[in-house]
Specification:
The protein is of the alpha/beta class and 374 residues long. It has 2 domains: 10-46 and 282-372, Aspartate Aminotransferase, domain 1 (Alpha-Beta Complex); 51-277, Type I PLP-dependent aspartate aminotransferase-like (Major domain) (Aspartate Aminotransferase, domain 2, 3-Layer(aba) Sandwich). Helices cover 40% and strands 14% of the residues. It contains 13 helices and 12 strands.
Amino acid sequence: MDALSEPPAGFVPPPYPYDKLDRLAAICAAHEGGIVDLSIGTPCDPPPPAVIAALASSDSERGYPPSIGTAGLRGAIRSWIQRRFDLDVSVDQIAACVGTKEFVATTPHYLRLRTPSRDTVLYPAVAYPTYEMGAILANCRPVAVPPRPDGGLDLDAIDPADAARALMLWVNSPSNPTGALSDLDAAAAWGRARGVPVFSDECYVEFTWEGRPRTILEQGTDGVVAVHSLSKRSNLAGLRVGFYAGDAELVTYLKEVRKHVGMLVPGPAQAAGAVALADDEHVQVQRDRYRRRLERMAGVLSAWSGIDVPLPAGGFYLWFDAADGWAFAERLATEGGALVSPGDFYGAGGANNVRVAVVQPDDRIDQVARRLGV
């Protein structure tokens, strides 16, 4: 075997979680009317017409857009933060990102360059897989933080030795996949007391069902960064418009690094994003849709399976204990033609669970109900 044909000795990417669903997708597709895909949180509803008009008429497609975000986009972000949270954050502490997945995946690498003496990324034990993968890609130690009984982070369970090596702590509230709400004030205080930057992924904040929407910025910006996306709020996942805001030094550092990498949200997408952020009415319409679908799908699955399927505290996912996540997913694919995510996609602690994303139109959810005889 020559050197070029030998298997690599370094990093080998693991299978992408959702690629594991191909077999179940084929089972679903065999149903009359085809698959009802409730596995990935891909919005299906239309964005506001004004957003589409802005996308088509910005006249910004020829030049390179600013990596940090246009003045119009950052101004719209600042205004949205003021309206939503009654906070005033300087535009100098706000910057755009290409959606938030790339930000989650790349930030540990940049922070490791900034603080090479630290090598540990703390993240929720049951979580969006990219927190862990971002740590791995940065050649860092991913260390999972277990949940409290209410689903929030158990900060007291973090080993002091891991805290001393921590490069950053990820918080996700409302959580993907569980919908749980974390104590963001406690997370900020924990990080400040230990000199650990806390990054709060808040992309589902507009779909907070229990209490008011919260951000980690409410107790000040020192040592914390809030991360937001228009993908869920405004059904713009395809445009890849996100932003981060918070600690002046952290945001400035990341802005400057990301300029060198060429992380640019396309100009037309930035123009459309500014329009979307200025409009709250369409978000309320979307809230109503997701709430209705959550209630409908929870009722269908509970009646069919005999399992108690609770409503989440936030987000648009149902998350429940099915004893065996893969067995439940296969049974639902076979009988209902619906594709859902086994909970082990989100960490070993979710192996018994299932995540159901209510991102299909009402008539498709009704179709699943009819197939299941509910």
